[in-house]
TrEMBL record:
It is found in: Cell membrane. The chain crosses the membrane at residues 15-33, 98-118, 158-183, 203-225, 251-272. This is DMSO/TMAO reductase YedYZ molybdopterin-dependent catalytic subunit. Residues 345-484 form the Oxidoreductase molybdopterin-binding domain. Its main location: membrane. Keywords: Cell membrane, Membrane, Transmembrane, Transmembrane helix.
Amino acid sequence: MEAVNDFPFWLRAQHLLNFVLIGMLIRSGIEILSSLPRLWWRQDCAPGTEWLKFTKRELPKEEGVYTSLMDEKAVHPLLSLPGRENIGLGRHWHGLSVMLWVLNGVIYVILLFATGLWRRIIPTSWDVFPEAWDSLKTYLSFDVPDISHFQPYDALQMLGYTFVIFILAPFMMLTGVAMAPAVRGRFPRFVKMLGGHQGARSLHFIGMIMMAGFIVMHVSLVFLVHRDRNLVNMVFGGAQIEVSNARAAQAMVIMVAVIVAVAVFWIALSYWSLADRVRAQRFTAGFTEIGRKIFLNWLRPQGAKKTAYTDDDISEFHWTNGLPPTEEESELWVQARERNWAGLTITVRDDINDVEKQLTIDDLKALPRHSYIATHTCMQGWSATSRWTGVRLTDLMSVLGPRPEGARYLLAESYGLAQKMYDNRPREPFYAAIDLDTMEEEESIMAYERNGHEIEDYLGAPARLRVESNHGYKHVKWVSRVMWVHDYADYGDGRGGTREDSALQAFNGRI
């Protein structure tokens, strides 16, 4: 018989919750990665420059012939959350899990210091390093350190816990938020310090591998090193609990049952999401919007103050998501392209009062000109840096006069169609709505030039929306109409845009 160190209920409960949330994070992370199963260090994601890929598909070298949606891979719901090419829901589940994981971690650290249990995890002597080295050599020899080395953890465990809790976890948070357009627009030097969007994405993946490796090692050692003691501690806690064969067997049954129950819960989340994807989108996007309102919505791009990016940062290659309209999709756009856009107009409309004006591309270019360098990011993961030139949306809409009473959103429509609809109905004209605060940002423009020349057809010629604080699904290409609206719920499926309708993304594209 042996008395063991105290493991209070809050500590055991938070470990269990952390296990559940880490699993959700990794599974939803797999879904996100499967939407573009390649990793780069280069910001332009040029074909053939990946440092790691999870697909055998070879990318064409020519720009504008291969979309990122074509590269998406379907993953089984047993492995990912939710699986089956549902990047929108995968991103929502990832965001929800992050919020709960961070909250759980903050509470854990507070209680750790409030109860004095931090001394069991954080080393207070340099002796921990030679002791950890001795433990590592013991493990590598397939032996087990004596029980006397565990108080309740040995030196190697202490260093591992300290690294994961106070270094790896914050690293994952920082690299995660660095991929948010709102953060990049407000703190461009921070993102550039991490290697830009692709650096942050690759580092985040490496961190995930390290976290997963730690978990596998941690759980394995629970069952391989002084198993009876570990299981009794983790299940029953309490300094007065005695380790006996019967108690250890009881703890083993409970532990295995809990692990099985958590795995069933992970898989059930996937199938619950797939059973009614709109319901899952409402729940997850509604929950994660709380985090966006608290941490992101107040972040505004630096605009003219931004000096982090220069012409030297402009990308050599630019991906696309969506191909130019065909004659079947928009005969008007195709014919105008053949005439170098002569006769093509963009409608500027007040949909509240039924007032509108038609602007040609020359009319657009006659308005005040605005230019800046920005990194475009797709919610699937690719990026490219360009100099965009056009007219600010505030100047564009001023051609109708003062903002009409009751206008709450700006909605842009495209000559092009959605690539696909999640429910397989006929493809619909692409559109996106943004709130007025976003519309008024300095880097929200109707662009007609990229890198000093007219925008390429595949990137949205002759004019496209640029909303740099949001991901690319808000940047409508081949714009046909821009209008004041009272409520985006009156358009499309009422979710605020085609990618919200067709891929169940969030209306708020700031992360």
